[in-house]
Amino acid sequence: MTLENSIIVLAKAARQSARKIAVCSTTKKNEVLEAIVEKLASQKTKIQAENQKDLDYGREKGLSNAMIDRLTLSDKVINSMIQGLKEVALLPDPVGSVKDSYVRPNGLKVSRVRIPLGVIGIIYESRPNVTIDAAALCLKAGNSIILRGGSEAYHSNMFLSSLIHEALEDCGLPGNAVQYVPTRDRAAINVMLAQEEYIDLIIPRGGEGLIRFVVQHSTIPVLKHYKGVCHVYVDEGADLSMSENICFNAKVQRPGVCNAMETMLVHKAIAPTFLPAMARHFLDSGVELRGCPKTCEIFPKAKPATDDDWGTEFLDMILAVKVVDTIDEAIAHIDQYSSNHTEAIVTNDYSRSMKFVHEVDSSVVLVNASTRFNDGGQLGLGAEIGISTSKLHAFGPMGAEELTGTKFIVLGDGQIRE
Amino acid sequence: MTLENSIIVLAKAARQSARKIAVCSTTKKNEVLEAIVEKLASQKTKIQAENQKDLDYGREKGLSNAMIDRLTLSDKVINSMIQGLKEVALLPDPVGSVKDSYVRPNGLKVSRVRIPLGVIGIIYESRPNVTIDAAALCLKAGNSIILRGGSEAYHSNMFLSSLIHEALEDCGLPGNAVQYVPTRDRAAINVMLAQEEYIDLIIPRGGEGLIRFVVQHSTIPVLKHYKGVCHVYVDEGADLSMSENICFNAKVQRPGVCNAMETMLVHKAIAPTFLPAMARHFLDSGVELRGCPKTCEIFPKAKPATDDDWGTEFLDMILAVKVVDTIDEAIAHIDQYSSNHTEAIVTNDYSRSMKFVHEVDSSVVLVNASTRFNDGGQLGLGAEIGISTSKLHAFGPMGAEELTGTKFIVLGDGQIRE
Predict the structure, then answer these.
(1) Number of Cβ atoms within 10 Å of the Cβ of B146
(2) Which among A239, A246, A410 has the least Cβ separation from residue B364?
(3) B361 vs A contacts (CB less than 8 Å)
(4) Could you read off the pLDDT of B181-235 as tens digits, one per residue?
(5) According to the model, what pLDDT value does residue B207 have?
(6) Which residues contact residue A302 at a Cβ distance below 8 angstroms, ignoring those fewer than 6 apart?
(7) In chain A, residues 190-229 whose CB comes closer than 8 Å to chain B
(8) For testing contact with chain A, the best of B20, B212, B356, B415 (most A CBs within 10 A)
(9) Burial class (CB in 10 A: 0-12, 13-18, 19+), B187
(10) Measured on CA atoms in the order B375, B379, B385, B390, is the torsion positive or negative?
């Protein structure tokens, strides 16, 4: 069988299984999640033996220590997968919930009911725990899943997927509801992205290169974010200590993630009092500052920012800083450079807080809180499958509900159209 | 300027205007709709003169009478555009409405608020009234629009778009919020479909060929339906007169539209009593019947159906008829042949009605009502921009709300992440 045919067979099997998973009760789906928990616990030694093959191969290929670290299925990582499964089991099941319900003048009872999306393809890099985390959330929302992880995690991913397959069959459900693309050949991704007939949605998780590749080649809808270039704007008259806490948290608490602050905008009226102390605090904590001319004037230890620094996702202990004349200049800067991910204002002015949340075009807009709250768990969605920075279907963190759609159910007693 | 550059300039202008339209009040947007109404009324003679150019060109090119009819902007069509605008002005504005709102344990006030999608591209055929109807609904939801109609309606579409442009500017808004692609060159569509950076959504309206072309070439998300192969299943024990009314209405009331019934499934227990009278009624009204062997046995005037008849969208006075042994056979037939558009059951059995709405995977599933109700107006959405048969973002008729997304607004008082 050719590569193309084997992927098509796999995608067709996913589509067929999807109809069975879609109509499962919550109890049955949670039973599957519990069965996966048991397999992870009882097969830990085998999981780690398969993972060792990947680690040996990775070391041979000269992967960095950071990559090896992300690839490793330590006891701690396996326990966190188990914990994640238990949390997903406790989440409310979105399927069947009614979004809207009303009676038409002719007596038709119309409701919009949540249904699974169908077949979801997940294309990801490095961390093999995504295999379990993503499959669990997709299953909870009643979907079939096709997984394709990084080639460096091949053995780990194949084995973890086989455990999910077994768990499904143990519960009397089609094992093919969760499948792993059984080849390291990258051409398999191109074939997968052309199966519009069988796959309803693709979610890529990884670096910008992977995501651009997926968007370019997919005829299937893709939900993704390229990057998070998040801004905090410190407004005129903002509480100084609150501003410093929020900016410090947004930059330093975990600088390598997409919801960390990359650019700080400061109103000129507050800059002379706010910037010196804030900048010293950053510098003392190892944050490199790249400032506009006014920033460098107020705080000469800042390096001058280049044009490229605005709009850069540093993912590191680096911060671009700009002094602005007005909130309009701050919003225009965000409009030009942000990635529509997360922006925050620190202010005590009512109308400017309203203006900021109204006019800033990002998936999460915050007043007086850290950008680090753009996260499914933090915003109350439970687990998240990713963050979307485009507005169709989902904008912001995506939880189980974002893995469903709605259909219209119409109950009549003989109505016909005049 | 090359064709490609001119389309990019146009798409960039749409994106810039989008930020202005997105934050407009409902009053301002309705003012624009009223201004368009006035222009249509006052410029009727000029509209019809431009339309005449298209009609002359169309007759020269040998367009069919039906095509010429669809192309004609008669007084009646212009009045219905005016009526449509007034109805859209009366619709509730989805922008700003809150989908969900709650307080997190740390005191963060989280809400999900409806926002415009941004820039919507509409690619359509023949009817120039779509120019007004589609633009009105997109504007109401706060979006910018790029329109590209059929080349045979070029002069009509260009002139109608220029009226909208003027109306926007008269109201102090950027005229480029509604633009028409100013060329008949089909290559413009390919360029448009590659402007992922500036266009958020493409809605194609027209025949299956156009829609497949758009899906194949677009890197922008597309909402569409290819076709409507709608089924009615007449269950064992269904009320005979209700069944006959619903099936007749679903087939005959307007056979050329996507929500008309194309295949009728009949349970074997009711077939001997239901089918003969129903079939005679159809035949007397000019409907050609193509039946399975059992149907032809019960009603010998039916032609034998070929394999191709199942799953065909006739859009005509032709109906495929099949007798099934069980509701499971009916659902399996629908699963195999339907286009996920609209299916109905006629039944008086509670559990089978529930089974049907639960298991049938279509955008609108009805009990004891005609398939003809899959329509934005009929289901209470007001005007509709089209019907979607895929589940992402919208499934079924799409009204103003489906032209919006949501963003998270988070109000805090200094919260940081631990």
Answers:
(1) 27
(2) A410
(3) 19, 22, 115, 407
(4) 999 999 999 999 999 999 999 999 988 899 999 988 988 989 998 899 999 999 9
(5) 86
(6) A279, A289, A290, A291, A295, A296, A321
(7) 196, 200-201, 215-216, 219, 221
(8) B415
(9) exposed
(10) negative
> What whole-number distance in Å separates Cα of residue A282 and Cα of residue A323?
17
Q: What angle do CA B30, B34, B36 make, to 5 degrees?
A: 115
Q: Can you give the pLDDT at residue A14? A: 98
User: Which residues, numbered 333 to 372 in chain B, qualify as contacts with chain A under a Cβ-Cβ cut-off of 8 Å?
Assistant: 335, 353, 357-359, 361-370, 372
CB-CB: which of A110, A361, A372 is closest to B417?
A372
Q: What is the pLDDT of residue B119?
A: 98
Residue (of B151, B133, B144) closest to B210 by Cα position: B151
pLDDT, position A207: 86
Question: Does B372 contact A417 at a Cβ distance shorter than 8 Å?
Answer: yes
In contact, A340 and A361? CB cutoff 8 Å: yes
Position B322 pLDDT exceeds 90? yes
Q: Does B413 touch chain A (CB under 8 A)?
A: yes
In whole angstroms, give the CA distance from residue A5 to residue A2: 5
Model pLDDT, residue B10: 97
| pLDDT for the residue B177 | 98
- Across the interface, of A248, A414, A417, the residue whose CB is closest to B373 is A417
Query: Among partner residues A358, A373, A417, which is closest to B108 by beta-carbon distance?
Result: A373
Please identify among residues 23-62 of chain B the ones whose CB lies closer than 8 Å to any CB of chain A: 23
The one-letter amino acid code at A86 reads K
- DSSP conformational letter for B388: E
Q: How far apart are CA B411 and CA B98, in angstroms?
A: 14
Domains of chain B by start residue, with CATH: 3-224+398-409 (3.40.605.10), 230-373 (3.40.309.10)
Chain A hits for B195, CB-CB cut-off 8 Å, are: none
Tokens of A255: 């600088």
The 8-class DSSP code of residue B222 comes to: B
- pLDDT at residue B126 greater than cutoff 80: no
The pLDDT tens digits for A122-157 are 999 878 999 999 999 999 999 999 999 999 999 999
Nearest of B227, B185, B242, B248 to residue B312 by alpha carbon = B227
What DSSP string runs through A298-353?
HSTTSEEPPGGGTT----SSEEEEEEESSHHHHHHHHHHH--SSEEEEE---HHHH
Task: Say yes or no to pLDDT of B240 above 80.
Answer: yes
Give which of B143, B364, B367, B391 to mutate to test A binding, by max A Cβ within 10 Å. Answer: B391
A56: Cβ contacts below 8 Å, ≥ 6 apart: none
Contact A408 B379 (CB under 8 A): yes
Residue B9 tokens, joined: 């300039």
Residues A396 and A363: their CA atoms lie apart, in Å, by 5
| pLDDT reported for residue B381 | 93
State the pLDDT at residue B270: 98
- Set of chain B residues whose Cβ sits within 8 Å of the Cβ of A248: 416
pLDDT at residue A383 in the model: 87
Contacts of B104 in chain A (CB under 8 A): 378-380
Instruction: Let me know: does B94 contact B404? Beta carbons within 8 Å.
Output: yes
What integer pLDDT is reported at residue A131 of this predicted model? Answer: 95
Separation of alpha carbons B143 and B140, rounded Å: 7
pLDDT at position A208: 86
Whether this model's ipTM surpasses 0.90 comes out as yes
The rounded distance, in Å, linking the Cα atoms of B377 and B384 is 7
**B63-83 mean pLDDT:** 94
**How far off is chain A from B361, nearest CA to CA, in Å?**
8
Structure tokens of B231?
A: 């089924």
All residue ranges of chain A with pLDDT < 70 are none
